[in-house]
Request: fold
Amino acid sequence: MVFKCKNCGGNVVYEPSRGHMYCPHCESLDSEDAVQGGSLTQCAVCGAPLAVRQYASSGRCEHCGSYLVFNERVEGEYEPCWILPFCLNKDSAVEAMEREFGRRLFTPTDFMSTKSLEKMEGRYVPFWLYDYQAHYDFAGEGTVVRSWTSGDTEYVETSYYEVIRQMDVDFDRIPADASYELADGVMDLMEPYDYGALTDYAPKYMSGFYGEIYNQDARELEERAKAKAREASEELLRGSLQGYTGMRTLDRKLEMHADGVHYALMPVWQYLYRYRGKTYAFHINGQTGKVVGTTPVSRGKVLAYGASVFVIVAAICRLALNFLEIL
Ligand SMILES: [Zn+2]
Ligand SMILES: [Zn+2]
Reply:
């Protein structure tokens, strides 16, 4: 499938800054016609042979430059439920990255000037989004120790509390990326996405970008999402047990029930740079502009500053929470 302009016949793409389909040839908005044809091996526009990547669902013809969507990779079992359209266009993504370079003290001063761009692409990364219902039963013995001095005597008072927690937690859309090519760690750092902007899938959003089908099915990746839900549940429990001097666990049980899973596509800008014979990859969240990647470290600069600090911020999923506390 290819999106052609009704007015000039040119290739129409989705333009993030406008939030509309856009014809770069005659500057028309929403002038697209979805034209069927072509295949994974042949361009729908010029008929040239295509060499598509193993999991590609959309891409660009190297011969005529048209952006193509491959029907058999976006239909049936491969039809996404949702897509998060790009909010950042290429220029905004470049700006976000250069701001990030500027902040990195240890980037060699010649990195920006001698860097050479290998590749810059907007990609839709396949994700599974899992819903879980968790139920946590906890029983423990909490102690609160109080001490004071009166005259020559020091008093220590220990109070014992029976502590019971029953938590019901609904987890919505816990993400796990289903792409072999992009490291799990990178995609986890891309979070958070604002899933409120997810929209029903339509192929037009892919015109202008490189899409990928899921490389692993929902069952294979379930454990990763479950682990995130478990971890968040533990954190909520810990948070609810503040205020005691000590806590002895008597009983704890965490039950998790799967509550649905959806296939979705998330936007990522990917940049590859060559610098002194080595390739550096940068990924930019196509919705929020968050940049993930490492720049080369200049030895001289590290010595000058002594240490470098990296702070990683992880996001927690959206939660609904009920407590029952009996002291
Ligand atoms: Zn046009
Ligand atoms: Zn072509």
Observations:
- The first strand starts at residue 2 and ends at 5.
- The helical segments are 90-103, 111-114, 184-190, 218-240, 299-305.
- Residues 1-73 form one domain.
